[in-house]
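Holo prediction — flavin-adenine dinucleotide.
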Amino acid sequence: MSTIPPTCDIAIIGGGPAGSSVAALLAREGFDVVLLERARHPRPMVGESLIPHFWKYTDLTGATPAIKAEGFIAKAGGITVWDGEIHRIRFADFGFERPALHVERDVFDLLLLRHARRCGARVFEQVSVTEVIPGDQARLTWVRRGDGETARGTLRCRYLVDASGASSLVARRLGRRHLARSPHQFLSFWGYFTGSRFIDGEGRARDAEELARVRPVTFVCAYEDGWIWHIPLRRLTSVGLVIYCDRVRGLEGEARQRYFLDTCARVPYLRDLLAPARFVEGSLSGRPDFSYHVERVAEDNLYCIGDAGGFVDPIFSHGVLNAFYGAVLAALAIRESLHDPARRQRHAQLCAHRLHQFYSFSRALALGDIGVNGVDFELVKRFMRSVPERELELMLAVSHITHRTRHFRRLIEASGLAELGRRLEDRARLLECLSM
Ligand SMILES: Cc1cc2nc3c(=O)[nH]c(=O)nc-3n(C[C@H](O)[C@H](O)[C@H](O)COP(=O)(O)OP(=O)(O)OC[C@H]3O[C@@H](n4cnc5c(N)ncnc54)[C@H](O)[C@@H]3O)c2cc1C
C-alpha cells in the first residue's frame, strides 16, 4: 500500500464526480492534491441520467475524451407522464450538439477518478475520513482498510474540500446541514432489470435489442406516492421510485422489495415497458431522507461541494451537473486564494454565493420551494439572468412538465422572462399518447 502523506496543499474527501473533478483541475495546475475515498472504485452509485450541458465541465477538467471513448448510451431527451399529461423534451430542439447520456455510474465515476490520478492527484481508496478539525491548517483523521490491514493517521492541509456526497461529513460535524422543511421530503428505492423495452424520442416503445441503433429517452411518470424513472443503460435498465417519505416510512427488506415490484407491475406505461423484463435479484438499493441544504458551503479554506453542499429531488437530473459546477468554482477559488492568500475569504464568499444560487435555482425549479429551505428568490432571478441562453431555454421548457412549478412560473415573470417562457412552451410538446 502506498503511504498517505502527512501534509498537502489541498485535501479532498470523496472521489465521486465532485471530488474527482476538483482534484483533476487543481492537480493540473501543479498543486499538491490528496484525495481520500472511502470505497474502492468501481462502486455502485445512483444518478445515471446526465443532461447535455455537463460536457462543458468535462472539457475543463479534460475528462471528455475518456467519457466519449466509453460509448455510453446517448439519449434523445425525456418524456414525462404527470397528472395525466404527456410531455416530450428533445435536446436537439434546443441546439445542443453533444448528446445527453445514460451512464453506469460505477463506470463513469471510475473513469473520472482515474482521470484525476492521471492529472497528478494522489488518490487513496478504501480510506474513510472520520474526523475533521477546521483551521488554518485543517486536519483530517483517516482510517484505511484493505488487504486485511487497518491503518490510521492524520493529514494536514491548507485547503479542504468536502465532496463526500450525501454523507456531508463537514456540514454534519459543524451542525450546518438541514433537512428541508417541506411537503417535498423524499426517500428513494431503485433496482435494475434486464430485457426491458424502452421509449424512443417519438414516444414509441421499442424492444431491448433496438437500443443499439435507436436513442432512448429518460422516461418519468408520476404516481400517487411520488414519481418513477426508467433509464435504459447498456446492459440493464435502471428503475427508481422517488417517494414522499410519509407514504412508506418503515418499509424494510422484503416488504420494500414487494412495494417496489408491485409498483413497477401496475403503473401504466411502466408496466408495459417492464412486461418482458426480469428484475435483477439483489439489485434493490435505497436512499433515506432528502432533500437538505447546507449553510455556508464555502468559507476561508473550507469548501463543501456536490451533494456534500446540498441536494434536491433529482427530477431534473441536476445532481452530477451540480457536482461538476461546484468542482469548477471551488478549484478556481482555491487556485486564486493560493496565489493571493490575502483575498482568501473573498474568493470563498464568491464561490459560496454562486453555489447557493445554483442550489436555490434547482430547488425552485424541481419543487417550487421559494423563500424556504435556504432558497433565495433574488438569487434565483440573478442566476436565471446569468445562464447561457440554450441552457436557460431548456430549463424554462422543462418547467412545464410537472405540477410543482407553479411558483417557479411566478419567478419567471418576475425575472422578465415571461415572454421567452411562453415561446418555449411548445418545446415541451404535449403528446396525446405513447405508442406501446
Ligand atoms: C434517488 C436519486 C436519483 C438520482 N438521479 C440522478 C440523475 O438521474 N442524474 C443526476 O445528475 N443526478 C442524480 N442524482 C444525484 C447524484 O447521484 C448526485 O448528485 C451525485 O452523485 C453527486 O456527486 P458527488 O461527487 O457530490 O457525490 P457522490 O457521487 O455521492 O460521491 C461521494 C463520494 O464520497 C465518498 N465518501 C463519503 N464519505 C466519505 C468519507 N467519510 N471518507 C472518504 N470518502 C467518503 C463516497 O464513497 C463517494 O464515493 C440522484 C440522486 C438520488 C438520491
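READOUT: The chain is about 35% helix and 30% strand.
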